[in-house]
């Protein structure tokens, strides 16, 4: 007859078969303690936005003792006001909260962690404890009933990745996802960053510290996209490796991570991150990455950043007038270099001139068309480029061979569109087809850059938007057309 052992941890009492058919790691008790504390604080912050107050038995109400016999009227009014601002709905541990968090433990084994969530973390709507083993899923259901949390905890027997992929829709995503695998979590990260809600919490454990600490750099690269190295700071680097991997996988879906807390010990790593959506922030990801150069002799290291995001506006680099295409081609030919037009862009050139020669030509051009040096920042590329004298004197006299025969004869250099509106179409609608409004917009704005306005008198053919709104103050002197009849019709309607 099969016997069972009861293991107590926190507020949970878990049944374990003596045959050790389900994995249990007692060394990870601190990991589970920390996770309960982090999710509790996360629930406190998130549920406050939903109008729910988290209540913990260990947090007693603050008692204010007045030494005077009579209570100050102003203080009483202040306390009453503060009390009225508190959320009307409260959430306690072990109770189901309709506005609470939806939690998934993807690799639950015995369900100990999930049972502790249900017993110790307030403000939960549901806890899904999943495991691919049928015996583990059955044990989870028994432990939920044994601890009296069947109303909160539900057992699941599925592949963890497929379960998370099925919950990628915004309305189905989990608020908290906990992954504590036996080994590397790399195969689950892609599904996790997609199935966690906006601002949701990911709790990830990596127990393959040997790989992440430099014992196998090739294996580390194949799993996390980074090469680990043996160094005194290997545990700190291991944390950054998993954070880098999470950030890269989230960036594929225009999401980014916000690290909250991380723990690195001899044999495992535990990270807690929140996941948000934001294309602008995702673009800054490269500025957070770097290459590490480590000295095998003294252990010193140097970081080479992959990039740095700057906002310098849109201006081609030296802030001066641009030479014409023929002038620039002629200057290259005068300097003894070969040059030709590019098939990819009508204003681009191909040349065998080194970059140093090209910048020398531009320095010579700037002497003819000077820029205001006092307005250049000492840290700008233009300031540093113009601070160096050119090594030769460029000649901008137009040469005959600077303009090839194909350009003189206006031969077609680029492939023509086979038909109108032949480019990528708009995303398909649920009912299919493209709206007529979109087609009208395409016809209206087709080739708008080719017919640029060069004379201000042409603006009279365009209606004045401010006149339609009744805010134009220029009257007859306005450079745009005032259509009073159309405006009157709009007012009549």
UniProtKB/TrEMBL annotation:
GO terms for molecular function: tRNA (guanine(26)-N2)-dimethyltransferase activity; tRNA binding; zinc ion binding. One of its GO terms (cellular component) is nucleus. Coiled coil: none annotated. Residues 458-485 form the C3H1-type domain. InterPro entries: SAM-dependent_MTases_sf (IPR029063), Trm1 (IPR002905), Znf_CCCH (IPR000571), Znf_CCCH_sf (IPR036855). PROSITE patterns: SAM_MT_TRM1, ZF_C3H1. Keywords: Metal-binding, Methyltransferase, RNA-binding, S-adenosyl-L-methionine, Transferase, tRNA processing, tRNA-binding, Zinc, Zinc-finger. It catalyses: guanosine(26) in tRNA + 2 S-adenosyl-L-methionine = N(2)-dimethylguanosine(26) in tRNA + 2 S-adenosyl-L-homocysteine + 2 H(+). It is an enzyme of class 2 (transferase). SUPFAM superfamilies: CCCH zinc finger (SSF90229), S-adenosyl-L-methionine-dependent methyltransferases (SSF53335). It comes from the Eukaryota. Its EC number is 2.1.1.216. A zinc finger (C3H1-type) spans 458-485. Residues 69-90 are annotated as: Disordered. GO terms for biological process: tRNA N2-guanine methylation. Transmembrane segments: none annotated. Belongs to the class I-like SAM-binding methyltransferase superfamily. Trm1 family. This is tRNA (guanine(26)-N(2))-dimethyltransferase.
